[in-house]
What we know:
The structure holds two protein chains of two kinds.
Chain A: E1 2-4, E2 7-9, H1 16-25, E3 27-31, E4 36-41, H2 45-52, E5 64-71, E6 77-87, E7 90-95, H3 100-110, E8 117-120, E9 125-131, H4 135-140, E10 154-159, E11 162-167, E12 176-182, H5 186-197, E13 202-205, H6 207-216, H7 251-260, E14 265-271, E15 282-285, E16 288-299, E17 304-311, E18 321-326, E19 329-336
Parallel strand pairs in A: 3-13
Antiparallel strand pairs in A: 1-2, 3-9, 4-7, 4-8, 5-6, 6-7, 9-12, 10-11, 11-12, 14-17, 14-19, 15-16, 15-18, 16-17, 18-19
Helix pairs in contact in A: 1-6
Chain B: E1 8-9, E2 14-19, E3 22-27, H1 29-35, E4 38-42, E5 49-50, E6 55-61, E7 65-69, E8 74-79, H2 81-85, H3 88-92, E9 101-105, H4 117-127
Antiparallel strand pairs in B: 1-2, 2-3, 3-9, 4-6, 5-8, 6-7, 8-9
Amino acid sequence: xxxxxxxxxxxxxxxxxxxxxxxxxACGLFDVSHMGQVELTGPDSLxxxxxxxxxxxxxxxxxxxxxxxxxxxxxGVIDDLIFSRLGAQRWFLVVNASTVDKDFAWLKSQAxxxxxxxxxxxxxxxMIAIQGPQAxxxxxGIIPKAVGLKRFGALEMEFEGGNGLVTRTGxxxxxxxxxxxxxxxxxxxxxxxxANGASYGIMPCGLGCRDTxxxxxxxxxxxxDVDEEHTTYEANYGWVVKLGKPAFNGKAVLEKQxxxxxxxxxxxxxxxxxxxxxxxxAVLLGTEKLGVLxxxxxxxxxxxxxxxxxxxxxxxxxxTKVVVEMQGRSFNAEIAQMPFYKR
Amino acid sequence: xxxxxxxxxxxxxxxxxLEGGQVVVGLSDHAQKExxxxxxVDLPKVGRKxxxxxxxxxxxxxxxxxxxxxxxxxxxxxxxxxxSSNPAVVNLSPHEKGWFFKLAxxxxxxxxxxMDFAAYQEFLKTAAH
Lengths: 343, 129
């Protein structure tokens, strides 16, 4: 067990590698109740969301979910999140555990003068992620309607006596679902999913493989890979930014970066020799220091060391030879095509 | 091969067992649980002379990298190729199939300077606080 922003979470149940492979090949179950939930309601909900996030919520219909970044005026990332449209004036935001309080206070301040209501439901809701190629089959016997969801679809539902939400989303790079349930219903939901998933090879999964899976899939870890000091373009998540929509926080900065390019960018690398890179390790091109790794690990799928970090040469092509320095030792590596893993 | 109860231990979590005049060395069960899945092990070469307390091998897990120290002085007389080719064996069988290497000890009496099982258990309890 480790302390994760005040939550006691297991690094592993059985083994990080076994749990990782279970998610890639069968199914894994994650207790992600540490994640935060905020409900947004009121006539100005859409206008409010459009102002605070980089993506375009105006295109969404009821039952759509979207990944995005909350931005400050400098286009620094306040948080990354997934929000779902439950109605024209009713939205559900899922934010990071480490940033719940900051986000909620910030959202409140951003809402000044707008007709919206924000409610922090984080203490009331638990969250379970069922991830992997067998997730749909396992869920079909329990929440049949969920199977009809498209990727990034959201559906309100009742499960184990609690009213909640199921979205076809995840943080692993596999197909999967995230169930958001009242706390009272969560333990039964967990047990039901484990029982129904047993014949499909479901494994309970800890934080350890959550990190190896998300890094392989190229997902950001807020606070490590992106924060208020970095913009969405710098984080190499340009697809999130919709410059075509009307004014929003940080738009001017992003327009400038789009025009002139960024000075640093989050790039991925892969060791071409045996070794495991660690966050904090320096990355060099010849003798020039490019940056440091913000996340790094052993990739169980690629069977190689992988990492990401902000590099001062944003246009380095995949395949470019670089060196990772750790504790006085040098490891050969090359810039990698992102994501490292795609199903 | 080496029952945990009859091994000697270092504070850095190596176990050592005297068997037929040789000292078999591996990583403790407690340590393999703590560091999680081992993905690489670098072993010393056969014939290398090592000093007690010298870093002689390295262990990389998904979570972190560790130096592995010689519990006694001596010469490496055998290494376990299986832990290099299949490092998971360190997690699955830390005291049997997952042994690292064998030493011809310079002085068997050095073994008595290491913690016995009870002392190691006690050390783990205090180290946890």
